UniProtKB/TrEMBL annotation:
<keyword id="KW-0479">Metal-binding</keyword>
<dbReference type="InterPro" id="IPR011032">
    <property type="entry name" value="GroES-like_sf"/>
</dbReference>
<dbReference type="InterPro" id="IPR036291">
    <property type="entry name" value="NAD(P)-bd_dom_sf"/>
</dbReference>
<dbReference type="InterPro" id="IPR050129">
    <property type="entry name" value="Zn_alcohol_dh"/>
</dbReference>
<dbReference type="Pfam" id="PF00107">
    <property type="entry name" value="ADH_zinc_N"/>
</dbReference>
<feature type="domain" description="Enoyl reductase (ER)">
    <location>
        <begin position="15"/>
        <end position="351"/>
    </location>
</feature>
<protein>
    <submittedName>
        <fullName>Zinc-binding dehydrogenase</fullName>
    </submittedName>
</protein>
<dbReference type="InterPro" id="IPR020843">
    <property type="entry name" value="ER"/>
</dbReference>
<dbReference type="Pfam" id="PF08240">
    <property type="entry name" value="ADH_N"/>
</dbReference>
<keyword id="KW-0862">Zinc</keyword>
<dbReference type="InterPro" id="IPR013154">
    <property type="entry name" value="ADH-like_N"/>
</dbReference>
<keyword id="KW-0560">Oxidoreductase</keyword>
<dbReference type="InterPro" id="IPR002328">
    <property type="entry name" value="ADH_Zn_CS"/>
</dbReference>
<dbReference type="InterPro" id="IPR013149">
    <property type="entry name" value="ADH-like_C"/>
</dbReference>
<comment type="similarity">
    <text>Belongs to the zinc-containing alcohol dehydrogenase family.</text>
</comment>
């Protein structure tokens, strides 16, 4: 008899988690799939909700980075079978809007409402979703590595929007998983990259994965270092990959080091609501600096961006192993979040959770 309950981490009123048994999810349609989550990950978006009172998320299952094993399929499913190892793409729009129609579901007006009801619930034992959201893993790609594919896909989408070219001089601010993923993709595409952060351990991982230069913004002058890196011209491309409460500083810094006619891509997430960011807008206009917001990922042309990243990972062109610094069980989720949030003392970069 199938399980009637499953383990899940539910968000509490004060913003931590309570692990308890909840009703097991059931596939609602013949083209849907049910997966046992083997590994999930904690990303920067998750951390922005940590210890924050959010009544709309209370008792909800969160998380959107995961890999697992197929345990049940609908009768119309052809692309996966029970027992397959897969990575889960957790972006799911309403399927009826103009953006979903052309596979730009990352821009669906109902994206978050839809995805959080089904497929974007990684901190649980099982997850369900349409079969198109499940991608087969090669035998040599581990569940832990695959859990970083959501991160890499966000970075790939940002790079596609940027128009990055071989030999570009690239500045990245934020050496978290997104920033280091962005750096790896830029290096794989033939760019020279300088990356900045305030956490030494993260910068050292970035250096070990191919960054040409690193900047600790606590001790060094970012503008001077980038000008030295670019022969005084400024970066061709800057990627703001920090986001959150410091974005008013990191976005301004990204613009300040970008050359005349250059591009700044905004990858890091904003907090909700109106945010005022003071910048020299006249200077931006006179220099024709392009500001490009980037939102998650979807398809690029005929290719799903997550599948593109899976191929790069499988070929060894992206390294996920070095980015995984800590692993916990789902029962230790609060300790895992503490570790991920206190990266300056723990040296955490990507924290994985096992079921």
């Amino acid at each position: 008899m199938a399980d009637l309950k499953m383990k899940a981490a539910l968000k509490t009123a004060e913003g931590t988690f309570q692990v308890k048994d909840v009703e097991v999810v059931k596939i609602p349609a013949p083209d849907w799939v049910k997966v046992r989550v083997m590994v999930s990950g904690i990303c920067g978006t998750d951390l922005r909700h940590w210890k924050k009172e959010e009544h709309d998320l209370e008792c909800k299952i969160m998380g959107h980075e995961m890999a697992g094993e197929v345990v049940e399929i609908g009768e119309e499913v052809k692309n996966v079978k029970v027992g397959d190892r897969i990575v889960v793409e957790t972006l799911l729009g309403d399927g009826t809007c103009d953006w979903c129609r052309v596979q730009q579901y990352n821009l669906c007006p109902n994206l978050y409402t839809v995805r959080m009801e089904t497929i974007s619930r990684a901190f649980a034992e099982y997850v369900i979703g349409p079969s198109t959201k499940f991608h087969l893993l090669p035998d040599h790609v581990s569940y832990q590595e695959a859990t970083l594919l959501d991160t890499f896909s966000v970075c790939l989408h940002a790079q596609q929007l940027s128009g990055l070219k071989i030999n570009d001089k690239v500045f990245i601010i934020g050496a978290g998983p997104i920033g280091i993923g962005q750096m790896q993709l830029a290096k794989a595409s033939g760019a020279d990259v300088i990356i900045a952060d305030r956490i030494d351990s993260s910068l050292q991982i970035a250096k070990s994965l191919g960054a040409d230069q690193i900047i600790n913004i606590k001790h060094e002058n970012v503008f001077q270092r980038v000008m030295g890196f670019t022969n005084g011209r400024g970066a061709d491309l800057a990627f703001e990959c920090a986001g959150g409460p410091t974005i008013h500083e990191t976005l301004a810094a990204s613009v300040s080091v970008t050359r005349i006619g250059g591009t700044v891509v905004i990858v890091g997430g904003f907090e909700k609501g109106d945010i005022s960011i003071a910048m020299n807008w006249q200077d931006i206009q006179m220099k024709e600096i392009k500001l490009i917001p980037s939102a998650s990922y979807s398809f690029w042309g005929i290719y799903p961006e997550m599948v593109m990243c899976l191929e790069l990972l499988a070929k060894g062109k992206l390294n996920a192993k070095k980015m995984i610094t800590h692993e916990f069980s789902i029962d230790e989720i609060n300790e895992a979040f503490k570790t991920a949030a206190d990266k300056e003392n723990t040296g955490s970069l990507f924290v994985a959770l096992h079921n």
